[in-house]
What does this fold into?
Amino acid sequence: MPVSVSSSKLIYECLKDVGVRIVSALPETWLVHLIRMSEDDPEMTLVRLAKEEEGVGISAGAHLAGVKSAMLMQNHGFLASVNGIVSCAQLYRIPLLMLIAMGAVDFGRLYYSYTTIANAAREGAMCASLGGICPAGAAGAATAEVNGTLPGGVTTTVSPSGTLSAGSTVTVTVHYNFQPITTVVVGTATLPLSASASMVVQ
It folds into this structure.
């Protein structure tokens, strides 16, 4: 999934509009356009960090000098900065503007969603392969496997449809529209996922 240039530009313009003049960041894939815009702008100072916690010191110094700053980081960088945030910024009540890209969170959610629909497809195919023994039917079994864990629910297709004869192969496909949290950075509101499973009818 490419990072959206237009969304990054919108965020960058908002930072400038509120008076941010110092940006600190590590090289980050999700924040690449924001970092490039900061680097190319003569009105902005980009401070490249070796680790995210250094950004707390940069922002604290900027605040004491009367300059507005922003820290750009991914969610794991936020966790790496907690000591500096608590022992410096929070203790001395220094405001920090942190833009945290939650891309890693979305990859975790994406993996969970795909695993869930893959399990649902297998459950549906198993039910379909048992014929009349499974009262829920393939779609019902797949939906029951998801059991409300995915917002918006899933849709299921069974091929071939209708009455299945013993020895034939049935394929169940489960479709889900994944909605990332980081739509501004990712640049898309929906990512279609599908998983299929096939079994021989008993």
User: Anything to note?
Assistant: The radius of gyration is 24 Å. The mean pLDDT is 89. Strands lie at 20-25, 45-48, 68-74, 98-101, 155-159, 169-178, 191-200. The helical segments are 5-17, 32-40, 53-64, 75-90, 103-129, 137-146, 183-186.
